[in-house]
Fold:
Amino acid sequence: MTGTPEHSAAAGALQSALAAENAAIFGYGVAGAYLSGAQRAAATAFWNDHRSAGDTLAAMLRARGAQPAAAGDAYKLPFPVHTAHDAVSLAIFLEDGVTAAYLGLVAGGGTGLRGFAARAMQDSAVRSSYWRGSCQAFPGFPASPPGTTHVQLVQ
Amino acid sequence: MSADPTRRRVLAVAAATAAGVAGCAPGRAWPWATPPTQAADVGMLKDMIVAENALVAAYARVVSAFPVLAAAAAPLLRQHQEHLAALLARLVIPAGAGPSASAMPRAHPAAGGFPASERAAVAYLRAAERAQAAGLTGRLAVATPSLAQLFASIAASEASHAALLAGNQR
Structure:
């Protein structure tokens, strides 16, 4: 236990990111089984990305004297996955969840971790856009961030 | 009505003093004469607004030069306008002070000049998106946590734009 409050807040935010990576690793295992061809190859590559990101986070936690939380054996799927289409929806769900976890790390991990967290968000937003075939304006936020809805753009 | 001579003299002295101050005679400046230092993230917010505006302008120029790209560019351009609206919503602009000041690397690589082909135009936009995402990522430490989240999210959006423009090749 190394103890400043900032230190433990950062560890908590890192644990959340690790939990998201672990869930994504599980989810890609499910999704990959329903995909073929280029999509299967992408799922495999992304699964590897999440494994190595998880390893990085675990190492960062250990360096802070914290024990990385273990992955679950299984996670409840957000919807039944039986087809390639379902698998793609699941992959989008996974990447969006991971992006949101790193968005939490941007605010809660202290200034030293922001660049790391922001780059991780970029990676997951890129993977998400691969599955979607389109992009999001504010990846990681549940909806548009506050203040965007009633602002009129002056052209 | 003869004016009170004493009063007249007092006013004359006051006028002379005022003239003296205007002419930089001795006297201390009002403490509030220099505007307050703005928080570091306000400067970054202004830079971001300038950079987003530049990206929007780059898209507009590309689309007007290569109308065939309009359909592909439209959703990305719309998202930049959403970014701009979110950034503007966070900035209180005092009257007469437009967004200015820029330590931010220029959003688009003007070095190579305006692209001459569609292919080059797509590469040009891709480079601009990438540069902006990287520029934002490198400057997050000075922002408040909530602004840092907004900037990080915009940077992620721009990275995904760049990937989409590249045909999502990894």
Remarks:
- Chain B is about 60% helix and 0% strand.
